[in-house]
Amino acid sequence: MIYAEKVEALGKQWIKVYFKPIAELVYSMNKVPGARLNPQTKFWNVPYENRKYFEDIMGNHLIIWKGEESVGGGIDESSIPSTPLVNYKFKTKPFDYQIKGSNLIFERNFLILADEMGLGKTKIVIDGIGMKKQEGLVNRGIVICKASLIYNWKNEIEKHSDMKAIVVAGTPKQRAEIFSDLYYTKDWTFLVMGYDIFRLSILNLDNFDTYVGFDFLVVDESHVIKNPNSQIGSLIHRIPFHCKYLLTGTPLPNVPLEAYNYLKLGGKIDMNWWQFRRRYAIFGGYSGKEIVGYKNMKELRTLINNNMLRRRKEDKLKDLPSITFTTIPLVMSPGQAKLYNAVKKGIIEDLQDTSLERVPNALAKLMRLQQITDAPALLDSKEKSIKLEALDDLLESLIEDEGQKVVVFSRFKTMVEIMRTRYKKYNPAVVHGEVSTHGKPLHVAEKIIAKEHPNISEAEKKRILYDLTTSDRQKEVDRFQNDPECKLFLGCAPACREGLTLTASSDVIFVDVEWSPAYVQQAYSRVHRISQTKPVNVYYLVCKDTIDEKVMQVLERKEQMAQTLIDGGVKEIKTNRAKEFILSMIE
After folding, report:
1. What is the pTM of this model?
2. Quick one: pLDDT band at residue 570, thresholds 50, 70, 90?
3. How far apart are CA 275 and CA 263, in angstroms?
4. Do residues 293 and 258 both lie within one domain?
5. CB of 508 within 8 A of CB of 295?
6. What is the pLDDT of residue 82?
């Protein structure tokens, strides 16, 4: 990959460029007018006025601009009609850009909908499929999403259309009953299920497609299928859906090969995985089997952009309130700092092992450093937490003095539980990975009501249906949104990235952050989205001279490797690179 950044030096603008010294890249770079290599820094410098030449010559490789989106563009929106292509009655009023998106769904049988989070991709797809169904182009299909979002999808379908959605969830026996009923009921359009249920139910889905038929597939948070060698990445090709739509809140990432399964599913390439790798990757390193760079990127970028619609929130929601980011620097107490330095010393000792076998242990300790800056209690220490003390003051100011509701995120469930106890006076709503994401299927709930409450009023029946079919996760969200006594939302960030609307608040506090800019944006976009009426403030609690500052630098550089290392472990990144990275985070 080629990393590029616009800089100023000696009263002139330059492009600072870095890449590994691969012969193919060096050969191309020497063709760029004005390009010069600094032998000390190993950076290339190019006069900024030659940016077009630089991008034309080097653009066939992968260029990642600091502070700029690596995969931009997409379908030219000016080519899409801004009025509905058919006489369709929208149940909820769409924005103009949403009409364009629905028109594209109506026109095309494959689309990567990569609008920024908060622009209402779900509604766009629902309206587009509603238009297709009205015109007889589709009848029924499947929505696959994360398990935590299945009831969110059902609610959105009922909110934005008159089409019926059936959720496939529950025990194997309950799922078998649902599939049995599908053959005899024809009034539904959407079958909504999680990825695991899709995998477990593939034979049932195969049979239904053979005897009745599915017309469309919607894949939400489609990065889940990016690995063609995973079970879900392979099974997604099993049923020959006529129409396929992929939804993602972030464009395709800085690893171009992850585009393969998207383009293969859409029928846009006729290559197997290995042919695709040979076409777009440069191999080198040990035994010539490591991917050291990328080639034919103009071709791949064109393939992606021709099939992707990408709009930014700042461009489409002109009236969306502003968002302000504030870093609150903190200094750890001597006891907290002593504990931090002890763990840091252990990391350095681990990395001195020349066999590299202790690198995974050092990686685990990196996470421990983050926990120490949050609250030493996470490591069973009685030392005070400077972050919790700062959070006390911040919540008192925002909630008690200003009367605001506040959202607080941490990546650690244990930290969320500490805060739940500490701030119980604010009657907090709490969501983490152990909060149930499933309610009972509608047909099960109706049987329970008929058996246990045969003579209740419609209003009471509606209330009990809500209690039975709504997940605990959604109940916590609803409580925060609607209960004036619930002043605080405490969320474990990995469990709160998608499917939540928390616009009752305009203040978001990160006690710590995940190491991916996309993940952080997904979290605060729960507040900064459609229906938000107030300016949004995002606060980061950062302990000085600690890993907190390093992680913030990772976010500023929009660097993805850090989270890849944390999510996948050393196996996802070459061990030597992992060692270098860990050292850079503690120096």
Report:
1. 0.69
2. very low
3. 14
4. yes
5. no
6. 92
Report the relative pairing of strands 216-219 and 190-194 from DSSP bridges.
Answer: unpaired
Rounded Cα distance, 199 and 238, in Å:
11
Residue 580 sits at φ, ψ, to 5 deg, of: -60, -40
Q: Indicate if 139 and 92 belong to the same structural domain.
A: yes
CA distance 114 to 111: 9
> In CATH, what number is assigned to the domain containing residue 386?
3.40.50.300
Considering only CA atoms, which of 316, 311, 313 is closest in space to residue 112? Answer: 311
Q: Determine if residue 584 is left, alpha or beta; phi over 0 gives left, psi from -120 to 50 gives alpha, anything else beta.
A: alpha
Q: Is residue 193 assigned to a domain?
A: yes
Q: Are residues 554 and 414 in the same domain?
A: yes
* Cα distance between residue 528 and residue 93, in whole Å: 20
Last residue of a domain, one of 316, 346, 371: 316
Say whether both 423 and 465 belong to one domain: no
CA distance 57 to 84: 41
Residue 486: domain span? 323-436+471-586
User: pLDDT, tens digit, for every residue of 371-412?
Assistant: 999 999 999 999 999 999 999 999 998 999 889 999 999 999
Inform me whether the pLDDT recorded for 355 exceeds 50: yes
Q: Kindly state the DSSP code that residue 116 receives in the 8-state scheme.
A: P
Q: What percent of the chain has pLDDT over 70?
A: 92
- For 107-117, b where at least 16 C-beta lie within 10 A, e where not — what string? ebbbbbbbbbb
Look at the chain and report how many structural domains it folds into. Answer: 4
Quick one: 172 and 237 in the same domain? yes
What DSSP element (H or E) covers 385? none
33-51 confidence digits (pLDDT tens): 999 999 888 899 999 999 9
| Sequence-separated (6 or more) residues with CB below 8 Å from residue 271 | 264, 279
Tally Cβ neighbours within 10 Å of residue 532: 22
Structure tokens at 459: 């209003």
Backbone angles phi, psi at 519, to 5 degrees: -65, -40
Is the Cβ–Cβ distance between 193 and 143 less than 8 Å? yes
Which residues are 167's β-sheet partners?
192
Residues 82 and 214 in one domain: yes
**Confidence bin at 565 (pLDDT 50/70/90):** very low
Predicted confidence band of residue 559 (pLDDT cuts 50, 70, 90) = low
Structure tokens at 232: 């879900």
Edge-to-edge strand ranges of the sheet holding 63-65: 36-37, 44-47, 12-18, 2-9, 63-65
**Separation between Cα atoms, residue 51 and residue 53, nearest integer Å:** 5
Residue 573 has pLDDT above 50, yes or no: no
**d(Cα 549, Cα 332) in Å, to the nearest integer?**
13
Average of per-residue pLDDT across 272-293: 86
In sign, the C-alpha dihedral spanning 458, 531, 524, 425 is: negative
What is the enclosing helix (H) or strand (E) of 117? none
Give yes or no for a contact between 430 and 416, defined as CB atoms under 8 angstroms apart: yes
Element (H, E) at 309: strand 308-309
Same domain, 197 and 294: yes
CB neighbours of residue 266 within 10 Å: 18
Q: What is the mean pLDDT of residues 251-280?
A: 88
Q: Which of 283, 300, 316 is the last residue of a domain?
A: 316
Please check whether residues 228 and 288 belong to one and the same domain. Answer: yes
Q: Which residues contact 38 (CB under 8 A, 6 or more apart)?
A: 44, 45
How far is it, in rounded angstroms, from Cα 247 to Cα 218? Answer: 8
